[in-house]
Amino acid sequence: MSHQTVIVLDFGGQYNQLIARRVRECGVYCEVKPYTMPLSEIRAMAPIGIIFTGGPGSVYEEKAPHVDPAIFELGIPVLGICYGCQLMAHTLGGEVVPAQEDTAREYGRTEVRFDADCKLFQDLPEQAFTWMSHGDYMARVPEGFALTARSRSCPNVAIADEKRGFYGVQFHPEVGHTENGLGMIRNFLYEVCGAVGDWTMGDYKQTAIRAVREKVGKGKVLLALSGGVDSSVVAALLAEAVGSQLTCVFVDHGLMRKDEGDEVERAFARWDINFVRVDAETRFLLKLAGVTEPEHKRKIIGEEFIRVFEEEAKKIGKVDFLAQGTIYPDVIESGAGDAAVIKSHHNVGGLPDYVDFKEIIEPLRLLFKDEVRQLGRELGLPEYLVSRQPFPGPGLAIRIIGDITKEKADTLREADFIFRDEIAKAGLGANINQYFAVLTNSRSVGVMGDGRTYDYTLALRAVTTDDFMTADWARIPYEVLDRISVRIVNEVKGINRIVYDITSKPPATVEWE
User: Fold this and answer.
1) Which candidate in 26, 82, 85, 154 is catalytic?
2) Which of 6, 182, 395, 436 is 20 to 30 A (C-alpha) from 251?
3) What does pTM read for this prediction?
4) In which residue ranges of the chain is pLDDT below 50?
5) Which residues sit opposite 169 in a β-bridge?
6) Angstrom distance (rounded) from CA 128 to CA 102
């Protein structure tokens, strides 16, 4: 099934994936492509619109990224954002210069007035705050362009040549800081490009199932199922498509959260697939005994996973296809042209040489994370799997500071469960993007009953974020933190002190190791 398509040409800006996500939120399919994409390939995709992203360069610099000027002769509407706006002006005969300190240079939250007669801003408030990040200024706009938005220090915050369908904005409508930004993108798609909104997960599910069936035929498919969102949704999609031809190998390394292994197994009981759960806790813990350095932990777990997967693959015999949970951000970050090669061993941490297969199947490689979750719902996966928070591949191993033992893993599992349980009971889960407990290697004196204790300190971590590139610590109400603390020290043996991490990213990272 074909969809209307918008191309997002990437000039190296930090919000480029976010632009694509916003377009898809509006029900329009889009792909992010490098700014070097040949004109012939653009024509072949027959997009209804093109968006130029922001970027760190200045258009007047010798080595600044540019596009073939003939792109403006294709008769396709173009929206330029920040650098993309200046590139449009520069290419079409305008003049872009460095802004002076006292005029036109804008960063951060900026109040803007809009021309409501412009299609980009129609039916939206005529005044709003936007997110600016530009040090250059359009000293002269190209012939045929009108000024359609202004701020106190800049008269040309937005420009438009409505006859040709060319629009440019100096701010970033894709970020949450810009008021009505999604409405502007929607206006470009529907009022300018003529979008009909034919991109839905229901349609994608049916299309993907048909595509998998056609490719696989009567072949066998092997999937390393981690229990995370991506691999779980791939498993559900393949189960719907080829059923018993699919074998899922779920390696339970004993370092998952409480009840997670059982939840994953229960979720796939409804499908007629070969579900192999490998209880490998003992062998992983033996390998990790005495290891304290985080990267060493990761390496051991990754290598041992390969060995376990290798053993199970031998039992299965020849497979025709290896399935992976590669998603669109992986493709973009790896480079569209070489993504399949670069990511080919990503999800299994390295593929044994003897596993012979015809091809890799990546049915999620065009989807963003939020779309993957929605597809999971369409496939009937339980919400506890679909909305599962990010969880590192090494699991609790990197949430236990210092050496790892079964006793420490069990202790952390129980404490982490209480933390998550109380957050859910307080109705805060939807407002916190990630929250978990860390068992530190610090012990301190405490008093429980009439006796002295010398037990571990547990750290709680909770953050809010849009993209995990930056994150702020979550302001959990004191009374909720109090309930969490009281429950943990009373119900979990070995912990006598609770601390709450109030460090944002940067300077910290979300995980401790």
Assistant:
1) 82
2) 436
3) 0.75
4) 104-105, 336-354
5) 81, 158
6) 22
